[in-house]
């Protein structure tokens, strides 16, 4: 993913307009537009300021690191998966939709839960 697309994605995840991000990093909105559309190279001091304001590393913005910050952000990654597979979060947690699941779907769900618990237990044992 390009730097412009990363900036747009991060900005949209914060529900900021391009104007709002430009204000936060002290840039003219037209400059911010050109950075996001990659019509203008980003200067080092702008990169640093964007990384700070967007709560990521400069390496992430430059595509050198797939993590957004110093630590892995599992909630962010889960939200990205929900977006990628077009799963509406409110629908995902809507109990009424779960009530319509049949026996085979419940078995699949149980398998998934077992997998998650098993992986968590493995990780906990490795950390001990």
Automatic annotation (TrEMBL):
CDD domains: HTH_XRE. InterPro entries: Cro/C1-type_HTH, Lambda_DNA-bd_dom_sf. Residues 7-61 form the HTH cro/C1-type domain. Gene3D superfamilies: lambda repressor-like DNA-binding domains. SUPFAM superfamilies: lambda repressor-like DNA-binding domains. Keywords: DNA-binding. GO terms for molecular function: DNA binding. This is Transcriptional regulator.
């Amino acid at each position: 993913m390009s730097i412009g697309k990363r900036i747009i994605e991060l900005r949209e995840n914060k529900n900021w307009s391009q104007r709002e991000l430009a204000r936060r990093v002290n840039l003219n909105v037209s400059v911010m537009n050109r950075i996001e559309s990659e019509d203008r190279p980003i200067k080092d001091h702008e990169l640093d300021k964007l990384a700070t304001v967007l709560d990521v590393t400069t390496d992430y913005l430059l595509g050198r690191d797939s993590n957004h910050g110093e630590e892995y952000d599992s909630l962010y990654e889960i939200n990205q998966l929900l977006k990628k597979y077009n799963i509406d979060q409110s629908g995902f947690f809507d109990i009424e939709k779960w009530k319509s699941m049949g026996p085979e779907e419940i078995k699949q769900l149980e398998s998934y839960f077992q997998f998650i618990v098993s992986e968590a237990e493995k990780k906990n044992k490795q950390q001990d």
